[in-house]
């Protein structure tokens, strides 16, 4: 005689005997991965844009049957644009939620310590937005979908040179990202024969940037080259307009980030570059689905990378037939070795789990960010 009971039979028997029964809520009913996004703070516009992409990706996975036959979900934590908060969020995702994969954050200065923790714990990390070359050094469980500063600096410096600017000034945040952009762009631009005649690194969260802008204007540049996070960039752009500096060209490195919070009348006419956003039929279908779902198009270029990261994770779990992080990581490598067709284009990993030939785009602002 078998003594095994199903969960339902055990519950019914226990209730008949007057016993209280408690089972873990939703145990094994939902399969989770994690995300740390900047939903508040200076980059909230970008974070919300990415959150929308994540929601769209989750719906896509579940419409296609979920993961391992179960409902799929992304647990999203807010970094608040703060490294300590992001690290605490990652700890919660690993120790409490037990997720095998975490995507995010946005700023390199926040992503790096968070990802270092995840790698130390053996949990998979997928970089969807940060561009510091130090991303490449994170370790064996970190994967990268986006172009890093070395390739971005080569692209932007050549673009600025081709636009005819020869003597330029630069302003950027004084952090790992901004320092890397200024150093790398200057090195590449000088190779081409151009010159960065002045530079300024600003402290995050300043109420004004007039001193830095006035200092740069004294160098009488052909153009102003800048990169800045959304809300800080809005102040820089407004003050540049008030100071009359917009008589000269403004070129934004990562233009959708830099102009995400700047009013259109101030941003109009700016040129810039960006990581590639959507590509081919898959990218077009994604862009249309995003606009239909959220009643407006994408505001930044990072949504596609988040979307691809979520779908790749779900595909890896199904391929591995497991949610064990080591098994998922092995499946991610296998998927990436054969070339995964994402909405940001073909994704192929090198031996260090870095994306080969990441896409870039030449853009302008004409009421919105568009190709040029």
Provide a short characterization of the protein structure.
The protein is α/β, with parallel strands linked by helices and 372 residues long.
Properties at a glance:
7-stranded mixed beta sheet; disordered N terminus; about 375 residues; about 20% strand; Rossmann fold; 2 domains
Task: Describe what you observe in this structure.
By secondary structure, the protein is of the alpha/beta class. The protein folds into two domains: 31-148 and 279-359, Rossmann fold (3-Layer(aba) Sandwich), CATH 3.40.50.2300; 150-276 and 363-371, Rossmann fold, CATH 3.40.50.2300. Helix content is 44%, strand content 19%. The chain has 13 helices and 14 strands. The chain has helices at residues 7-16, 44-63, 83-95, 108-120, 149-162, 176-192, 210-217, 230-242, 255-258, 264-267, 280-294, 303-320, 325-338, and strands at residues 30-37, 71-78, 101-104, 124-127, 142-144, 167-173, 195-202, 223-226, 250-253, 271-275, 340-342, 345-347, 360-365, 369-371. The chain has a seven-stranded mixed β-sheet with strand order 7-6-8-9-10-13-14, with helices on both faces. Strands 2-1-3-4-5 form a five-stranded parallel β-sheet, sandwiched between helices. Strands 11-12 form a two-stranded antiparallel ribbon. Helix 3 runs parallel beside helix 4 (108-120), helix 5 (149-162) packs across helix 6 and helix 12 (303-320) crosses helix 13 (325-338). The chain starts with 6 loop residues before the first helix and ends with a strand. Residues 1-27 have low confidence and may be disordered.
